[in-house]
Amino acid sequence: MLHASLGSQETWSPFLRSSPVWTRCLDWLKILTPETPLGNHELDGPSLYASVQEYTTQGRELCRFESHREHIDIQYTIAGIETIDWIPREALSPDGPFGNDVQFWHAAADYTPITQAAGRFSIFFPGDAHRPKVIHGQPTHIRKVVIKIPVHRIG
Fold first, then answer.
1. Position 107 pLDDT exceeds 80
2. How deeply is 138 buried, as exposed, middle or buried, from its count of CB atoms within 10 A (0-12, 13-18, 19+)?
3. pTM (global) more than 0.90
4. Could you state, in order of their start, the residue ranges of all structural domains in the chain?
5. How would CATH label the architecture of 2-153?
């Protein structure tokens, strides 16, 4: 897991030089505006795409941990603030069957809360269970983008 500000390139760029896919994704985030339409946007063919979403944050008990096998998530907040809880996947037990490249997990007491505010992003790898949509203080309207990177695209 990596959490950083898009505007502080010196803190994350040394870690993301291994593949041009990182550059493609982060450059797209830099040109994103609050008016970017909701829905999916192809970044490099249909397998590398960004999903622009809106929702209102909820109580932690209503949110679920999830992880992916075939994709890496870049979650970037355009507007609003939420908490995304993080825990290593191996610390959790499955909550239902795996399907459509998502596994949901039973909640755990020992997780790390991440404050995800406008201009910040988190990268979740297959070993990272994450629980987005959690209230940070009070329910907030969120506008964010989730970029789905196929694991095999990272060299």
1. yes
2. exposed
3. yes
4. 2-153
5. Sandwich (2.60)
